[in-house]
Amino acid sequence: MSKTVTIPSDVSRLEVEINRVHYSYKGGDTVTVPDEVAALLADNLRDVPTDTRPVHSPLAAENKKGNKAGVPVMTDESGNLYADADAAAAAALGKIYVDGHKAVIPNNEEG
């Protein structure tokens, strides 16, 4: 199956590789593409920020470092990323405790 799509005109050339098959299209052209290329374009175009709709896609790291719970990252109305200060402090200080007159900071291997 295939679909007719218009390649975004904000690129001079669109290069796509899916399942080791390379596709190349000129920006602004209306072309017939395989379904998987059309799906990729539709998915990417859906996430493009606009003046009225900022990006709010979830962010994820394959391998988190440090606190396994992580710190949530948010975006403001302009699409700028930021982390909540209280959440960052809680993540950083969550395992620290006081034992007598000593502050104990466990290393990563302990927990």
Q: Explain this structure to me?
A:
With 111 residues, this protein is of the alpha+beta class. The protein has helices at 35-46, 85-93, and strands at residues 2-6, 13-18, 21-26, 30-34, 73-75, 81-83, 97-99, 102-104. It is elongated. The mean pLDDT is 75.
Q: Which structural class is indicated by helix and strand composition?
A: alpha+beta
| Global mean pLDDT | 75
Helical content (DSSP H or I, runs of 4+): 10-25%
Weakly predicted, low-confidence segments: none
H-E order: EEEEHEEHEE
Q: What characteristic shape results from the CA principal axes?
A: elongated
Strand order across the largest sheet: 1-4
Our count of domains comes out at 2
Strand content: 25-35%
Largest sheet: 2 strands, antiparallel
Termini gap? 52 Å
Number of helices: 2
Number of strands: 8
Write down the Rg.
23 Å
